Fold these 3 entries.
Entry 1:
Amino acid sequence: MKKLFILLAGGIAAIVALSLTGPLLGFAFSALLVFAGMHYYVKSKSAISKIFFVVLGLIGVFSAISNIPALIGLGALVVLYVLYKKWNNQEVSFSDVKMKEEDPFTNFENEWAKLTK
C-alpha cells in the first residue's frame, strides 16, 4: 500500500512538473537576467551602465513575477525528489552540512582515546 501511494503521488508530481516546464524555463531565464543585472551593476563604473543593469535586473524581476506558476513546478520537483528517496528507503535530508563540534575538550578526549588504544 505504501509503494502504491508513493507511485501514485510520484506520477501526479511528474505530470505537474512536465506540464509546467515552460514557466520553469521562463523562471530560470528571468533568474539569469536578475543575476546578470546584479553582477554587472557591481562591476560597472559609469552611471549609464549602472542604470542599464538596474533596468535589466528589473526586467528579470518582473519576468519572474509573471512566472509564478513555476514555483508549483519547483514544488513538484521537490516532491519527486523526496518520493524517489522514500522509494529507495533512503533518508531525506536537505542539509548535507555537518556541524563539526568545536569543543576542545571533546577533541582532546577523542585524541586521547586514539592514543591509549
Entry 2:
Amino acid sequence: MSVQDVLKKYAVTASGKGGVPIIFAHGLGCDQAMWKDVAPAFETSNQVILFDLIGFGNSDHSCFSYERYQSLSDYADDCIELVENLCSEPVMFVGHSVSAMIGVLAARKRPELFRQLVLIGPSPCYLNDQEYQGGFSAADIEGLIEAMRSNYLGWVKGIAPVIMGNPERPDLTAALEDSFCRTDPEVAQHFAALTFWSDNRSDLASVTTPALIIQCSDDFIAPQSVGRYVAAQMPNAQFVELEVTGHCPHVSHPADVIEEIRCYAGLPVPHG
C-alpha cells in the first residue's frame, strides 16, 4: 500500500516541524477532531499525526468489514501500518480509552516502532472479575450493547454526559453527542462490543515500551483502580492522576493533558 493510500484510508492529518512523531488515537464513537485542543500544542516540537480508526470519522469506510475487525488486535495492526508507512523513526503513541489498549497491543507486536506510550483512561478489562474491579458487571455490558442496538440515539443522549462527566459544561457533552451521532450505529455497536468484552490484562506485562498512564480522579468508565492496575502490570509505566472528572480530559482539561505529556517526554514549553 502506498503512502497516499494510507493517508486516504485513515484520513490522516499531518502537521508539525519534525522531531519525534506523535500519533494521537481517538476512542469509541469519536474521531480525530477530539484532539483539536491538544495536538496543536506539539506542532512546534514534533511531527503530529492525527487519524480516524476504520469505520469512524472520515476514514475509508469501504475498508471496514465485520470479518476483518474481530478484535482490538485488528485495530492494532492498522496502527502498525500507519507507523510503518508514515514514520521514519519510533513514535510516541497517545491513545484515549480503547485506543490506549490498541496502542498497547501494537507495541506488544512491534516494540521497535514505539518509543513511548501515553495511555489516557486505559482499561484492559471492563468486566469485574473477583479481586479485579473493571467497573462493570456482565449484565451492565449486556445492557449497554442492547441499548445501543435498540435505540442508538437514546443511548447517546444517556451515555454522553456520563462519559464527559462535566455537567457544568454542556457544550462538551453536546460535542461528544455530535461525534457519536456522526458514527454508523452498527459500526459503533460492533466496536463497543469488542471494547467492553475485551480482556487484555495478560498482555500488559510483556509490553516493555515506556508508558505514561493518565487517569482522572473521578472516571465512571475507567475507575482509578484500573489505571493503577495498568501501571502496576506494565514494567516501564508511570502513573499520574489528574484531579478532574470525566473520561475525556483531553477534551475537558486539555492544558492538564498537554502539561503531563510535555513533562513525560521532556518537551520544551513553546514561547510566544
Entry 3:
Amino acid sequence: MADHDYGYTTWGKDWVRFAESLRQTRPDPRLPSARRLARDGKVQITFDGRTVRAAVHRGRGISTVTIEVAPMSAGATGEISRQLSGIQPLLTDDLYRAIADAGHPLAPVLDSVGCSCPAATPRCVHELAVYYDMARRIDDDPRIALDVQGFFLASAGGGEAPAEATARRWIALNSLDPAAYFTVAE
C-alpha cells in the first residue's frame, strides 16, 4: 500500500495516478524506490513552459527525465478563471471538484515522457520518482498544476482570465517598461 506523503490533495493526486495506475493489478516493486528517491531529494525539477525536466540521482548515475504536458483545454481555462476570485485565490480541493463537476477535468494529460536511462521497461524508476516529486510539489503549491498545463500563459495571452486570477507576488523585470515605470515628477 502506498504511503500518503504524496497526493494528499486532489491536485497532487493526479500525478500520483501516473505512478500508481488504477489499471495496475499487482504491486509494482519500483514504487518504493521511486518514493524514496523523491523523499530523499534525489529529484531536481525545472519547468520550461509545459515541459518538466528532471535530473534524478540514483547511486552514482544521473538520469534525465523529460515530460511534455498537453495544454489545458480552453473550457477548463475559462472555468478556472470564472471560479477564481480575490487578490490571492486559493486553489482548494473544493475548487478542483467544482471545476470537474462543471465538466472540465483538471487532470493533466501527458504528451510524451522520456528518460535517458537504459531501462527496457515502459516506466522506469526515474520517471516514477518524478511523478511523486511533482505530486509533492503540487500538494505544497497547486498553482504548479495549472502552470505546467499552460493555464497562466493561456489566461494572460488569451485575455480570458481576470487580472486577479494571474496575480503573483513578483513581477518579471523584462515585463516592466522603464520609460513608464521611472518617471520624474515636475
